[in-house]
Amino acid sequence: MTLSTCMRCNGRGFNNCTACAGAGSTRIQRSRLGFNGRTEYYYQQLPCSGCAATGRIRCVFCNGAGRVPQSGTKPQPTQNPVAQDASPTTQAVWIPQEFKFVPEQFARHPSTDGTWATLWQSGALDVGVSWMPAGRFYLDGFQRDRWLNLTGEKGEVLPLRIFVPSAGAVRGMWV
Fold first, then answer.
1. Fold of 1-67
2. Which residue from 99, 93, 90, 47 is spatially nearest to 72, judged by alpha carbons?
3. E-strand spans in the chain?
4. Tens digits of per-residue pLDDT, 102-139?
5. pLDDT tens digits, 63-79
6. Hey, where are the domains in the chain?
7. Could you tell me the pTM of the whole model?
């Protein structure tokens, strides 16, 4: 089994705590009645209960190991290089290939680092690309039996098309 770096924690095995942003403590606003009879507001620094004041949360995707099993679902470039022009040097052209999602395993884009997708048993699909925060798509509301393009919150087209069948495995295609 081949292991690759966990894309969610960049191989660290942990992420910054989302409750305290990695600080290990949180500030809460408090109020009290002052000596002059007026309400005073102040901030109190408290240890973060989300991370036990460490500022870190163990990565749930790699279970703190920093590495995850390679899904084996990434498409391979075509074996037939296609010339871009008549010059003696040729370049291989990557042709998108369909793949089946394996639940709870990462499918990585074959030519773009930091681009991945994971299908969960719950039917949620997480997609991460290097140029925006990871997004979650719940497939139960998607149209069935047709290829669909995915878009981010701001309408950005993601480099993944999916096919949600009426029965059988969800398929994907990196674009």
1. Chaperone, DNAj Protein; Chain A (2.10.230)
2. 99
3. 3-5, 14-16, 25-33, 39-47, 56-58, 67-69, 98-100, 106-108, 116-119, 124-129, 132-138, 147-151, 157-163, 171-174
4. 887 878 887 776 788 888 888 888 888 877 777 888 88
5. 788 888 775 544 333 33
6. 1-67, 71-174
7. 0.47
